[in-house]
Amino acid sequence: MKKIFTISSEIYKNDFLITIDGTAKIIFNFLKKNIKYKLNEEEIKSIKSISEYTKNGTTIQLRGGPILINIKTHKEKSEMYSTICHECVHATNMLFERKGIELDYNNDEAFAYFSSYLSKKIFMEIL
């Protein structure tokens, strides 16, 4: 199931680029046509390595652009679902770091909420 789509966060004013079994070529074409984001050399290298090194999933923070989440499909759907949740935690960390929001271990509700929001949006697209 090859799929690529974006999710926008109105609250945090940030986009997420989600790929299911995405390849570097698919990602580069989508960014060029739909987002008009110019990648730097480090980002190009990171995206090129997605197909080669990703076992389950990868999350990459594009400098000033969308946060990229790439998920590999699995025979076991539960494995893919857990990978989506796992990568959404990374994406939420990246978003909060980008926005200067520190994780509060005494009140992590905003972190938990956004992580589940992002997971839900992905599931709504692929199920």
Description:
The chain has 127 residues and is an alpha+beta fold. The longest helix is centred in the last third of the chain and has 23 residues. Helix 1 crosses helix 2 and helix 3 packs across helix 4. The N and C termini lie close together (11 Å). A hairpin with a 5-residue loop joins strand 3 and strand 4. The protein has a 4-stranded mixed β-sheet with strand order 1-2-4-3, sandwiched between helices. It has 4 helices and 4 strands; from the N terminus they run ββααββαα.
Summarize this, please?
With 127 residues, the protein is an alpha+beta fold. The chain has helices at residues 24-35, 41-53, 77-99, 109-126; strands at residues 3-9, 14-20, 57-61, 67-71.
